[in-house]
Amino acid sequence: MEEIGIVIVGGGIAGLATSLALHRKGIKSVVLERAEKVRSEGAGIGTLTNGWRALDQLGVSDRLRLTSNLIHKARTMLIEDGKKKRAFVLNIKDEARCIRRNDLVEALADALPDGTIRFNSQIVSIEEDETTSFPIVCLSNGNTIKAKVLIGCDGANSVVSDYLRLGPKKAFACRAVRGFTNYPNGHGFPHELLRMKTGNVLVGRLPLNANQVFWFVVHMQDSQHNGKDQKSIANVTLKWVDELSEDWKEMVKICDVESLTLTHLRYRSPWEIMFGKFRRGTVTVAGDAMHVMGPFLGQGGSAALEDAVVLARCLARKMGPDHGDLLKDCSVKSIEEAIDEYVNERRMRLVGLSTQTYLTGRSLQTQSMVIRLMFIVLLVLLFGRDQIRHTKYDCGRL
Ligand SMILES: Cc1cc2nc3c(=O)[nH]c(=O)nc-3n(C[C@H](O)[C@H](O)[C@H](O)COP(=O)(O)OP(=O)(O)OC[C@H]3O[C@@H](n4cnc5c(N)ncnc54)[C@H](O)[C@@H]3O)c2cc1C
């Protein structure tokens, strides 16, 4: 059996960022990713000030700023019976940009030392070593790895969160499709985030540059379509936008079909984030494996980046650098204390984000004006009039 000091399961945003944050602190890790290369499903990702602060700490923000434009405005419109009912415009003073997912994961992966990421490495289960209590990771190819520290960044269907005995995630009755559309002669849309809710459909678009637009379509009630292949995802999306104006239909019709992803939206309840046990021995989780949330605030990815910075800081504070691959001179107690500090530091931030995301999602889902108003009042009572205060959070220095 192979032995490794720190194993990270999952090479998505959370896994790569955690490995990079540890690397910046002089601590080695190995990332096990089931895919054959870094994955960029989801096309684009809106990244707000708090996310950029974390990217600054990881040392990849300058590279990403070169390929993403600033967004100065967010416009939300409610349409009923084909007429504009309500519109809210938010002037964004801080840093907000849409990044191509591919650019983000590549920037993180490129900054890691060679050999850190092991592709085609799917973990299927975790066992506990009877003598040391360290986790033993079992891979689909039959190999096993004993890790001194195991960090689960394996997304919403996390095997590691099952090992922590966290409850199953809950499902919104919504499906979302994300994709890119290229307009060779320019799209002509203003450089702002536009979100529109009409009937059961919430659509949004965000220009990346003069020619390319990132967009999403969320159907609030359709939990049927699974989207077997790219073509059927495109067809389902076209059906969803059927009632919208020509520019939205055109955007879906001429989209880059290969960029489409269909996701059934899930969340870990704020209640479970408040009381969940996020450490078992020297095993913990980060990113969606810890706190998958709906996309309604656009904070899941940025929260994963914050997790990475805080976890690496806590581990480095207790362990210090240069322990070699196996962390031989590092006590289990100090690792456990470091993970507890990480969980404590993250917990209330994540309870706030997941509660606000949940309430925002429910307010968009309901057809009843009275219930919507109730959710809005609750949001104002809990989070104040400044509903984007969550973007001002600073996860601190690495
Ligand atoms: C419609 C939609 C829109 C969104 N928009 C935004 C946005 O604008 N801004 C934002 O910040 N966030 C957004 N999010 C949330 C964001 O996409 C996620 O929070 C983020 O991708 C989480 O990253 P992660 O690394 O934790 O998980 P993932 O991206 O799911 O990565 C998990 C990785 O683990 C690997 N893996 C899984 N299981 C195993 C296994 N058993 N063995 C080995 N490898 C494994 C997977 O292959 C994958 O590479 C959105 C989400 C949705 C659904």
UniProtKB/TrEMBL annotation:
Keywords from the named record: Membrane, Monooxygenase, Oxidoreductase, Transmembrane, Transmembrane helix
Residue span, FAD-binding domain: 6-318
Stored SUPFAM superfamilies: FAD/NAD(P)-binding domain
Molecular functions per Gene Ontology: FAD binding; monooxygenase activity
One Pfam family of this chain: FAD_binding_3
Transmembrane segments: 364-383
Record keyword Transmembrane present: yes
Family statement drawn from the similarity comment of this UniProt entry: Belongs to the 3-hydroxybenzoate 6-hydroxylase family.
Protein name from the UniProt record: FAD-binding domain-containing protein
Record organism: Brassica campestris
